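pasting for the record
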Amino acid sequence: MAAFRDIEEVSQGLLSLLGTNHAQAQQRRLLGRHEQILERLLEMQDGAEQQLRETLAVEEKVAQSVLDTKERVCQGGTELQQLEAELQKASGEDAVLQAQLHQLGRELQELRDLEAELDRQEREVDEDTTVTIPAAVYVAQLYRRISKIEWDYECEPGAIRGTVHHGPSVAQPVHLDSFQLSKQFVSDHLWSLVDTEW
């Protein structure tokens, strides 16, 4: 703006000088100044155009950067939605797996409890067998020596069979049906077969 004012002043000066006698000297001086001002004006115009080009280039870069950023934000939003969907799916699968794991844990605990119970029963059976079988065998052998009765262990259930030996050549068979006879009768009858003479 200041350069245009200078041009206007120079132009008015030129017009005023044309009317005077010193016109040529002042005209040369004013023309020289006019040329200087025009050169400065052209330089300023070139500088302004250069700055405008640089500003436009910077604006273009910024606009492209903004567009790239918006695109990345849009892609990021899409990826975020996909990740959230996958997370929800994984959470659902995790809940199912947790329920299955809990069920398997309960079943495993039941199996452990059952195994412990079986071990306990097995120990009890072992203890019972170790304690009662020798005692039962001893009692059976003692009863056989006292009663001299040989039992038939392969008879049908409910039948009591055997042979009473009263000596090397005398043997009396025993055959009773425990379903038809009372326990008291069976016991008394068997004791009656025992030889009381020692």
